[in-house]
Design brief:
- By secondary structure, this protein is of the alpha+beta class.
- 35% of the residues lie in helices and 20% in strands.
- The strands form six sheets. Strands 15, 16, 17, 20, 21, 22, 25 and 26 form an eight-stranded mixed beta sheet that branches. A seven-stranded antiparallel beta sheet has the order 2-7-8-9-14-11-12.
- Helix 5 crosses helix 6 and helix 10 packs antiparallel against helix 11.
- It starts with a helix and ends with a strand.
Length: 674
């Protein structure tokens, strides 16, 4: 018996070492759900299994050389050695974990030793900070200091961010200390939450408890510890009741009812909980929420008016950068749990429109708020629910509020991490598209690699080339976006299937190295209707905005000392007209009215006016009465107003991808055809 026990210990150790090595090589698969949690259709691959190529890799490299890779030097007041998550007496709250939540996946996806080394002190301190009772993280409050959050060190909320960091670190390395820390910390939570609930220190944790819950379920799928299910129930009970709030349909129709980032994070909570209690009402609640967000607050870039609380769908209302990256993470999380195509479509809408538009090309500056109709980005108080001394739409490191300075880094790395998934049927799924490659295992532990070659979202074709040893049968899942009317899939040059949009197609066959799958997603020009019956022009996952001449200038912050915005920032002013109305066009005449022109589709960085790979030309008429108000586009003319004034002559205008713009009109008034 003693020999048998020794053999079991040795075998377990070997398995852990092998798993860790597989994670290091990027070839491991993920842990399947335990019996008490629903079996999800898709599972995230280990961090590092997916590598970015093409324009997506360029985005990641610009983050490395930009603020993501240098934030400790650019923002030492918060990210320097005094940070509480490094044991210091400085910032004790969310901003340090926020930064590492983006830096760490960037480091491991790029396999960049320098960046990995930069994350290590944060990871090591967090793990070694655990106390005998299970608590971890900063544990001492300090007095006030301008620009630094030094109190509420015991707040549950920042721990949720660091738990996500440690989960990703484990995914990349297999470091078992993460499992030990989480197990002990979750036992601590189970003991403490009845007397110190999620909202004991601040209200943020109550609205963001879904992030805590998803880490509890993640650990349960590894350890199977029954107490984690009890903790999950307790966290769900103490988290804001999104399910009923969404189903009652009042909150999202009411301005000021919820903080925009709480909504972006909390919207996934019913779907996270659905894994334990697979009741259809949780899915219905979230789908109802997205419909109501679209109806009452939605905008053409894929997000919603929230500056900082919900503020309707006027396209001059703001949308916070944190909202973009947190909504992307929520959609990525829900996509794996449900396989719902609309979540992937929505993820791409944000990633290919709102996300690149809100940061500068070198990823050194960002906006706190962006506007769907943004004709000036200047230091001016605007009609936002929350203002930060007029700096909210200026491009700077610290314009608006600094949370986005710390949190903006997770968008592109986590997007890369969620391009591919392992499937419940032991196959592989490409559910979101961008140039990349993946290495993993499929049925029977067979090692496979796919190279995905494409200039999507600008081009229609996506080519997958398989590399493997020998032959093997496994399922390969491909998403057909809902906007695509009729996709085609070919294998080795032969048409395999035609497929309509809004579905996931499963290819089951025997594969061999060198097989090539080509997915063609024909894109057509279409329109959507928004605030005051304005319209957006869209093609595939991209929304198009008016190309406006831009003058970007670095200016000193002239606000009084102690104001928001940092020492300097960029303002952007228009050099060409913007007050155009689009000519009324039937849906079946869109291709005639809007002429698509492909430009250089091989540029490594497509997200600016100079490099835009695609443009759309159309005719429009200027609206003389639509002028600036408070350095914004004035009140949007209703479409279509009887006997509405517009210029007699038509002008040709150019529309460019929204993500290529700093200034734009993306929701246009409509004028009658003459």
């Amino acid at each position: 018996m003693r020999s048998l026990l020794m053999l079991m210990v040795v075998c377990a150790g070997c398995m852990l070492q092998a798993a860790a090595q597989d994670r290091k090589n990027g070839t491991a698969t993920t842990t399947e759900s335990h019996a008490h949690l629903r079996q999800n259709p898709y599972r995230e691959l280990p961090l590092g299994a997916i590598r970015a190529n093409g324009w997506l890799k360029e985005m990641l490299l610009r983050q490395k050389t930009g603020a993501t890779g240098k934030l400790d030097k650019l923002y030492p007041q918060v990210m320097g050695s005094r940070n509480g998550w490094l044991g210091g007496d400085g910032d004790q709250w969310e901003r340090g974990p926020y930064w590492i939540d983006g830096l760490l996946p960037l480091a491991y996806i790029l396999n960049d030793k320098e960046l990995i080394a930069k994350t290590k002190p944060w990871v090591e301190w967090a793990i070694k900070s655990q106390q005998p009772n299970g608590y971890f993280g900063p544990s001492k409050d300090y007095g006030p200091e301008p620009g630094v959050q030094r109190d509420n060190s015991h707040d549950w909320w920042p721990k949720m961010v660091m738990l996500k960091v440690l989960k990703q670190y484990y995914s990349a390395t297999g470091d078992q200390r993460v499992i030990t820390l989480m197990t002990n910390y979750f036992r601590y939570q189970l003991k403490e939450l009845p007397t110190h609930p999620l909202d004991h220190w601040s209200f943020w944790a109550k609205y963001r408890g879904g992030d805590n819950l998803m880490m509890v379920y993640w650990l349960y799928n590894i350890t199977g510890d029954a107490f984690l299910l009890d903790l999950g129930e307790l966290i769900h009970q103490q988290t804001f009741d999104y399910t009923n709030a969404f189903l009652e349909r009042n909150m999202l129709a009411t301005k000021g009812s919820i903080h925009c980032v709480n909504l972006a994070q909390g919207i996934k909570e019913p779907v996270i909980y659905y894994q334990r209690h697979p009741d259809q009402k949780y899915l219905d609640a979230v789908n109802t929420a997205f419909a109501d967000i679209r109806k009452f607050n939605g905008m053409a870039h894929g997000l919603y008016g929230g500056d900082e609380t919900l503020h309707g769908n006027n396209p001059t209302q703001g949308s916070e950068f944190c909202t973009a990256v947190e909504m992307m993470f929520s959609l990525e999380s829900m996509l794996a749990i449900t396989g719902q195509v609309s979540f992937a479509d929505h993820l791409e809408k944000i990633a290919f429109n709102a996300l690149p538009a809100q940061a500068t090309d070198n990823f050194m500056c960002r906006q706190y708020f962006q506007q769907a109709n943004q004709v000036m980005a200047t230091n001016k108080m605007r009609n936002f629910e929350t203002n930060h001394d007029g700096t909210d739409v200026c491009y700077g490191l610290l314009t608006g509020y600094p949370c986005c300075t710390a949190n903006m880094h997770q968008g592109w790395p986590k997007f890369t991490q969620n391009l591919w998934y392992a499937t419940a049927d032991s196959g592989l799924a490409a559910l979101v598209y961008a140039p990349c490659e993946v290495k993993t295992t499929v049925t029977g532990g067979v090692h496979v690699a796919f190279k995905e070659e494409t200039n999507y979202p600008f081009s229609e074709s996506i080519k997958f080339t398989l590399t493997m040893a020998g032959k093997a049968s496994f399922p390969f899942h491909l998403r057909i976006p809902s906007w695509c009317k009729n996709a085609s899939i070919s294998v080795n040059g032969m048409i395999w299937k035609q497929a309509q949009g809004n579905q996931v197609v499963k290819m089951e066959r025997e594969w061999q190295s060198g097989d090539v799958v080509t997915l063609t997603l024909p894109m057509h020009v279409f329109k959507n209707t928004w605030y005051e019956n304005s319209i957006s022009i869209e093609r595939g996952p991209i929304t198009y905005g008016l190309k406006i001449g831009e003058e970007m200038k670095l200016v000193k912050n002239t606000n009084p000392p102690g104001s928001y915005g940092g020492k300097e920032f960029y303002e952007v002013r228009p050099t060409t007209p913007w007050n155009y109305g689009l000519i009324q066009t039937r849906s079946d005449e869109m291709e005639e009215q809007y002429k698509v022109e492909m430009r250089d589709t091989t540029t490594s960085y497509p997200w600016n006016l100079e490099n835009a790979p695609i443009i759309i030309k159309t005719k429009a008429r200027r609206i003389p009465s639509w002028q600036l108000y408070n350095e914004m586009a004035g009140p949007l003319p209703f479409s279509t107003t009887y006997r509405f004034e517009s210029a007699k002559e038509e002008e040709e205008i150019i529309l460019v991808p929204y993500g290529c713009t700093n200034l734009r009109i993306s929701e246009f008034p409509v004028v009658d055809r003459r």
